């Protein structure tokens, strides 16, 4: 296997793979295992070109002294798979059950939703469309906000721009919502200012400080825990329960994820075809 830049460097060595794996684990709890060398090499090709490096060896040497290179390497190795209204059921439950309950209970108090590890932004923008269409008074009175965070600075910049290809909008976004909430710019579609203005996009490492995360009524951290060790999962769930969710607040995880036997302080709740977890 080789990494192709302007030259053809030698195959990545076991020690170089180990150094990259250790950095990803310590900085972002990203787990890569033996047998994934080809994945690492293929994802790091653009990083080599960006920093004008001729080999993985040069990249590994630079990780210890170049923060920008470290950030770019983490960015390249982060999985950014998402789509609009993914799995649909959580969005239906938020629209039909949770938001009406919160509006009735909170009165003039604002509703806060956090989309953690938001990738390229389809999830928070899906929520934004629900709010604009179904809860316009909540929006017009500034009583709702969506905070969306991701480890990747590249993804956060993409989110803020709100620009999506035809392929991306075809994945889960109904045509009426596309026409209503997006403008066509060339071959792409760009979220309208009112939709973009609903979401506060921030760069945030889930392994770092949570001091900038507000107390939330709803947290979506879907298809994130599957990438972490049991220890990291337990830490993240504890942080959500202690630092992010209001008492009784709702946590949505991915369909293959659970708090059971990881953090049993949460109460599992079934709502039609959705599963959510209540903070005590």
Notable characteristics:
alpha/beta, Rossmann fold, 280 residues, 2 domains, Chemotaxis Receptor Methyltransferase Cher, domain 1, seven-stranded mixed β-sheet
Beginning-to-end CA distance, first to last residue: 51 Å
Main β-sheet, in a few words?
7 strands, mixed
CATH topology of the largest domain: Rossmann fold
- Shape verdict: globular
What is the CATH class designation of the largest domain?
Alpha Beta
The CATH architecture of the largest domain can be given as 3-Layer(aba) Sandwich
Domain count, please report it: 2
Strand content: 15-25%
Q: What is the N-to-C succession of helices and strands?
A: HHHHHEHHEHEHHEEHEEHEEE
Commentary on this structure:
With 280 residues, the chain is α/β, with parallel strands linked by helices. It has 2 domains: 14-77, Chemotaxis receptor methyltransferase CheR, N-terminal domain (Chemotaxis Receptor Methyltransferase Cher, domain 1); 89-278, Rossmann fold (3-Layer(aba) Sandwich), CATH 3.40.50.150. The protein contains 12 helices and 10 strands. It has a 7-stranded mixed beta sheet. A 3-stranded antiparallel beta sheet has the order 3-5-4. Strand 9 (267-271) and strand 10 form a beta hairpin. Helix 1 (14-28) packs across helix 3 (56-63), helix 1 crosses helix 4 (67-77) and helix 2 packs across helix 4. The longest helix has 18 residues, at 89-106. The protein is globular, with a radius of gyration of 20 Å. 36% of the residues are buried. The model is unreliable at 1-10 (pLDDT under 50).
């Amino acid at each position: 296997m080789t990494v192709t830049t302007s030259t053809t460097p030698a195959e990545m060595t076991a020690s170089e793979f180990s150094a990259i794996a250790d950095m990803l684990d310590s900085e972002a709890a990203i787990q890569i295992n033996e047998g994934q060398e080809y994945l690492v090499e293929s994802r790091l090709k653009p990083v080599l070109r960006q920093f004008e490096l001729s080999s993985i060896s040069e990249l590994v040497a630079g990780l210890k002294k170049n923060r920008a290179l470290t950030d770019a390497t983490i960015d390249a190795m982060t999985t950014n798979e998402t789509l609009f209204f993914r799995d649909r059921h959580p969005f239906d439950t938020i629209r039909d059950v949770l938001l009406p309950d919160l509006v009735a209970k909170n009165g003039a108090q604002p509703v806060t939703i956090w989309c953690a590890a938001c990738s390229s932004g389809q999830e928070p923008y899906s929520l934004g469309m629900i709010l604009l269409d179904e809860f316009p008074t909540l929006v017009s009175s500034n009583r709702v906000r969506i905070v969306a965070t991701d480890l990747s600075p590249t993804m956060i910049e993409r989110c803020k721009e709100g620009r999506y290809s035809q392929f991306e909008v075809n994945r889960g976004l109904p045509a009426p919502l596309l026409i209503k909430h997006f403008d066509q710019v060339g071959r792409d579609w760009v979220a309208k200012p009112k939709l973009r203005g609903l979401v506060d996009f921030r760069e945030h490492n889930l392994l770092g400080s949570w001091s900038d995360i507000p107390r939330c009524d709803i947290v979506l951290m879907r298809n994130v825990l599957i990438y972490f060790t049991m220890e990291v999962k337990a830490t993240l769930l504890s942080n959500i329960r202690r630092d992010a969710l209001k008492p009784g607040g709702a946590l949505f995880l991915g369909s293959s994820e659970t708090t059971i036997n990881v953090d049993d302080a949460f109460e599992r709740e079934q709502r039609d075809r959705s599963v959510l977890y209540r903070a005590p």
